[in-house]
Amino acid sequence: MARAARQRLPTGAEAIIGPDDLQASWFLPAGATARRAVGFVETTNAGSWTAGSGFLVSEDLFLTNQHVIGDETVAVAAQVTFDREMGEDGSLRPVTTYRLDPARFAIFSKQEEFDYALIALGARTSGAAGPTELGCCVMSDRPDRHVIGMNINIIQHPNGLPKMIAVRDNVLQYRTDRTLLYETDTDHGSSGSPVFNDSWELVALHHFGEPFLEREDEQKRPIPTNVNEGVRISAIYQDLSARLPSLPDSQRTLLQKALDLSKSISIGPGGKRLSPPRPSHDAQESLTLGQDGPTMTDDTGSTEVKLILPLEITVRIGAPNGGTPVRAPAPSPKALTRGAEKIAVDQDYSNRDGYDPNFVHGVSFPLPEPSAKLARQVAPLRAGEPNAEQGELKYEHFSIKMNKSKRIAIFTATNIDGKRFLDIDRTTGEVKDGAEGETWYKDPRVSASFFLDQTFYSAWSNLFDRGHLTRRTDPDWGTKEQAERANADTYHFTNCSPQHFRFNESTKFWQGAEQYVLENGAIAEDTLNRICVFQGPIFDDKIDLWSDDVQIPSSFFKIIAWKGKTGVKSVGLVVDQLQLLSEQREHGIKPPAGPAFVSVSQWRVAIPEIERRTGLDFGNAIRDADTIESKNQPVVGEAKTAVLIRKESDLLPSFL
Q: How far is CA 10 from CA 5, 13, 208, 281, in A?
């Protein structure tokens, strides 16, 4: 008597549809732990800025691609930024930055071999996170950490963006002895990212968006070009192990410690090893061929047929019987643009002299000195740059020092020569007419983590424009080449600050102050018409508003110094944008031109008051020349410390 077929309960709405995408609950917190070790890498070499990703493989050693950090020289100029990511509330987290120390340890494998750079972590330059807190991604040569068809996960900084993770539909497609090839979303800046299995075990070092090292897989099948390639961590592990005997004792100890981590620590929650990787399509790994075709037997004893067929479809578009074929409309051709149609920055920064303290004949106006507290916030330049610790970014006819925690300039200092001024087209950057284009640039001499870039201004375009600190026209003087270079230099993000989109149209006296002084004050000699201008943000913790983790300055200062008929003169100005910040663009569209819906206060302010509010010391020459408290200025009662500007003549006292 035949045994009755076993009844199967209907699965109903709880059926697994397609691949099994269920994950254990520890998957997310384990990934959150792994992501702390991943950093944003940036470096400069011969004036070229390069960015990528990388990660700690021990408390001492950092791993990325050799095509990101090519050698010891590039490593010295590199900086790694950890925790460059959005928090749970959508705001940017506080970051921690480190330099690298290739003198302590550095091994490079050529791009054509294993394409890795393993370098010692150097000094911490900002932030609070230590290597122990950041953790590491453990290297191992265990062979059972990946199978064809499994999902892989990549933590990365694509296009230099805050940290992102690819965890969906990323399938391992092919393997070779030294590479893994997978489908996933990556982009420029993803090079050097860690590749994990679903147990968050490190399986590869991502390095290319297409096959590069191998063209055939381990079964000699050709590898298509539409997959990403990562170098197997087991291959890197074995290469490093082979190098151990030849290393000096101190370096051998560091490397051995990193290689031994896989043997000395447990993996997974509770000290248990996480479940082994599985293919995303289980049937593909367990199909058996019987006489009646492919079958699969489940644990109930029932037999089901699940057939997975490779399917190729050819589509031919045309009319039957030899009629006129139907043709899809041709795509619109893309037009090439000339390089001159966009402002181009001269990448050879060695030809910039920056601000000249002795620019005005017969007097010196040095760069302002920050207070002891503020001096600790001056962003250093990259290692290898002249006087890197002083943090002075020299451009054509002006200089900038950055506040590394605020990510906005502390001040800019500009020389203006009214006699040699050239009118530069705003859109082309040329002295004469040209085509349209306005582009802002990163400065490779300073870490991108020390200034706000387009990521911020795009996210907050409902409120802010990219506002020049040193005005675009101010340094545009000298030869045609110098003026065009100066104009382009003002389009560095280091010279940019978050200014409300109404700011320029609401501050006409502020915007025209330099020209007014040139025309009415700086006429000491017939052959010279020179002034020096200092300007920057004023931060006030009591009233400033915040955009995510960015403190928005409620005010800006400007100090103009020159030599007038009666000697050295200076004037201090302050403008307040706080009242503007309640107006937003609707749907990203700027409101019609016209007066702002609030009145913006523009003040002539005593230099000592600006010093108090900014933490900057502008020196005796500028303080003593302050026109607001000049001995020749008629004063009734106590000297004023601020004058509300209602007309242009309020910028200067009438006796000048």
A: 15, 9, 46, 22
